[in-house]
Write a structure and sequence with these properties.
Layout: H1 9-17, E1 32-40, E2 46-48, E3 51-52, H2 56-63, E4 66-69, E5 72-76, E6 80-86, E7 91-99, E8 106-111, E9 116-118, E10 125-126, E11 139-143, E12 146-150, H3 152-160, E13 163-164, E14 172-176, E15 179-182
Parallel strand pairs: 1-6, 7-12
Antiparallel strand pairs: 1-2, 2-3, 4-5, 5-6, 7-8, 8-9, 10-11, 11-12, 13-14, 14-15
Length: 184
């Protein structure tokens, strides 16, 4: 896994994944896996060789080939898998929107990669707590084991909709798609 990655690798990777809208990375099993100097920080920034990748469209494209395999994160192409580092979660929920009323309510999340996903059984909310601060730090499953951390403003938006799970219950959360999701 210690193959040397030269400066042009980023451009080659871009050229390899550009033709796909949503690449079928779960069906790709590249023979070659290499370490790649790329880190997704907890604040959502993508860092390559010490510098922030400033082109959001490039980051969005790379996010489409992001996969999690055996606990590690990779940018997967048909020929090479590039192991990267992820500080917390690879994505962030930056916006919450709501459709419908209480019983038929559906909550939608928009990520920092402009993906929109529903809060539902396939995309559940994990009401985790930050071990350092003791504060709520929930995450939602986006796809294929990849999660997004709710930015504080998104969490507060959910908290404004919180209700008791059952009358008299101490469990507060939100309902979406007919499912109750605890917030803490």
């Amino acid at each position: 896994m210690s193959d040397c990655i030269d400066r042009g690798t980023l451009d080659r990777l871009f050229d390899e994944v550009r033709p796909f809208r949503r690449p079928p990375v779960q069906t790709w099993h590249p023979e070659r896996m290499v370490d790649f100097d790329l880190e997704i920080r907890a604040d959502g920034s993508w860092i390559h060789e010490g510098g922030v990748i400033g082109r959001h469209e490039l980051v969005k494209l790379f996010s489409t080939v992001l996969a999690r395999r055996d606990g590690d994160f990779f940018l997967i192409t048909p020929t090479v898998g590039y192991r990267i580092r992820v500080e917390d979660t690879p994505f962030q929920v930056v916006e919450v929107s709501v459709e419908g009323g209480h019983d038929g309510r559906r909550i939608w999340f928009r990520t920092n990669m402009d993906e929109t996903i529903p809060l539902d059984r396939d995309h559940p909310l994990d009401p985790r707590i930050d071990p350092k601060t003791g504060e709520p730090d929930p995450v939602v499953l986006i796809r294929d084991g990849l999660k997004a951390r709710l930015k504080r403003s998104a969490y507060y938006h959910l908290a404004e909709m919180a209700e008791r799970e059952l009358p008299g219950s101490e469990v507060y959360g939100v309902r979406s798609g007919g499912v109750f999701f605890p917030l803490m």
